[in-house]
């Protein structure tokens, strides 16, 4: 387990350093953030026609109120933690790839929920928005990462059980 | 040691987070005081350009001897001493994650672990505040401040990296790691199951 923690911390630091590079920001992170804003706005327009998005901003057409998705709110850092946890854990590579793919989808789904809820909280009350934005959702997203990782670890052990039966 | 059902643990953690976070917010001024004072004491011990700290609620101001000038709207210049501010709550919320996870997992001697873990979290938050203030002085202040402090390029880069890594990753992750150390039943059981299964699978192949 010590080896896991050392590898986990090293991977996180390395991936985060890569994330900070200007070229990565310009070619991956910014387009991803814009896509996140567009996806959020698309979901919201299913029940609220007052919403539009441009770049990383989601805005109300009638009031002009808007939120901008910045670093820390685009789910990239949460994905880095999850990917590092999956890669550092001793498991078959096939399970790791599946874990990373499904895990990122799960984390980004929670992140979509965060963006949408914060938009409406901000429209309603800025104090509640600040509380949810700066503290509550930051904690919930990390809890989501932990839960996804624990579920993946359980899937890794259960996948191997038919082989265990054959061996006995 | 009683087994821990994952579904119960997850549900309880989320519920506790929703309940404890507003309570922490109300109490945050009391938790801010030792953390801000601790960070001020550390920086005062390390750097001679630090004068002290001032606390107002959850906001801490680091008073320094570093001269800096500010251009005012009427085109005049005012000279003063650099005094970066920060809000304890920006990283202080992470303690709630630790409380929620530990209470949800309910290990043996949980209240002792809660108290000890809280003390460790406050110490982690002290280091977090130190990094934030150092980043303000090394990387965000004016050129004339840099000429007085003279940090090396390496120190500036390391502090900048630590600042961003801390804010975006370590702050919410540290309580999870601490919980995993304090109550490792969940992780240990799943770890043993997964690694045994993997080893058995390799033997059969």
Report on the structure:
The complex is a heterodimer of chains A (168) and B (205). Helices cover 76% and strands 7% of the residues of chain A. Chain A contains six helices and three strands. The radius of gyration of chain A is 19 Å and the shape is elongated. The two termini of chain A are 27 Å apart. Chain B has 205 residues and is α+β, with helices and mostly antiparallel strands. In chain B, helix 1 packs antiparallel against helix 3 and helix 4 runs antiparallel to helix 6. Chain B has helices spanning 6-46, 89-92, 94-105, 110-140, 143-149, 153-182, 185-204, and strands spanning 50-56, 59-64, 67-71, 77-81, 85-87. The interface between A and B is large, with 42 and 41 residues.
The SS-based structural class of chain B is alpha+beta
Number of beta strands of chain A: 3
- Cα(first) to Cα(last) distance of chain A is 27 Å
The strand order across the widest sheet of chain B is 1-2-5
Content-based structural category of chain A:
mainly alpha
Global shape of chain A: elongated
Shape verdict of chain B: elongated
Work out the helix count of chain B.
7
Which strand order spans the largest sheet of chain A, edge to edge or round the barrel?
1-2-3
Number of strands of chain B: 5
Helical residue percent of chain A? Answer: over 70%
**Biggest interface, residues from each chain:** A-B, 42 and 41 residues
Distance between the termini of chain B: 35 Å
Share of residues in helices of chain B: over 70%
Low-pLDDT runs of chain B: none
Give a quick account of the main beta sheet of chain B: strands, pairing sense, barrel closure.
3 strands, antiparallel
């Amino acid at each position: 387990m010590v080896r896991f923690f050392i590898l986990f911390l090293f991977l996180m630091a390395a991936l985060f350093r890569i994330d900070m590079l200007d070229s990565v920001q310009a070619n991956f992170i910014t387009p991803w953030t814009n896509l996140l804003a567009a996806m959020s706005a698309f979901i919201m327009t299913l029940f609220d026609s007052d919403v539009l998005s441009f770049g990383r901003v989601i805005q109300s057409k009638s009031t002009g109120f808007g939120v901008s998705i910045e670093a820390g709110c685009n789910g990239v850092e949460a994905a880095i933690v999850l990917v590092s946890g999956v890669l550092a854990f001793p498991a078959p590579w096939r399970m790791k790839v599946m874990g990373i793919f499904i895990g990122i989808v799960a984390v980004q789904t929670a992140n979509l929920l965060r963006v949408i809820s914060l938009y409406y909280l901000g429209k309603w009350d800025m104090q509640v928005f600040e509380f949810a934005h700066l503290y509550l959702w930051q904690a919930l997203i990390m809890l989501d990462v932990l839960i996804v990782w624990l579920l993946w670890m359980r899937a890794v052990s259960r996948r191997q059980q038919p082989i265990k039966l054959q061996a006995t | 040691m009683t087994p821990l059902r994952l579904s119960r643990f997850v549900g309880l953690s989320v519920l506790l987070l929703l309940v404890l976070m507003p309570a922490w917010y109300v109490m945050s001024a009391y938790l801010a005081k030792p953390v801000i004072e601790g960070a001020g004491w550390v920086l005062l011990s390390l750097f001679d350009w630090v004068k002290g700290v001032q606390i107002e609620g959850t906001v801490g101001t680091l008073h320094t001897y570093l001269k800096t000038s500010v251009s005012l709207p009427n085109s005049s210049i005012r000279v003063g001493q650099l005094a970066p501010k920060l809000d304890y709550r920006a990283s202080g919320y992470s303690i709630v994650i630790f409380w929620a996870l530990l209470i949800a997992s309910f290990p043996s001697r949980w209240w002792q672990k809660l108290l000890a873990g809280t003390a460790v979290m406050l110490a982690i938050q002290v280091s977090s505040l130190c990094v934030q203030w150092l980043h303000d002085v090394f990387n965000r202040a004016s050129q004339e401040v840099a000429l007085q402090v003279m940090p090396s390029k390496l120190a500036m880069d390391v502090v900048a990296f630590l600042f961003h890594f801390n804010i975006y990753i370590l702050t919410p992750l540290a309580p999870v790691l601490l919980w995993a150390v304090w109550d490792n039943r969940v992780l240990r059981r799943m770890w043993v199951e997964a690694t045994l299964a993997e080893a058995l699978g390799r033997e059969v192949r």
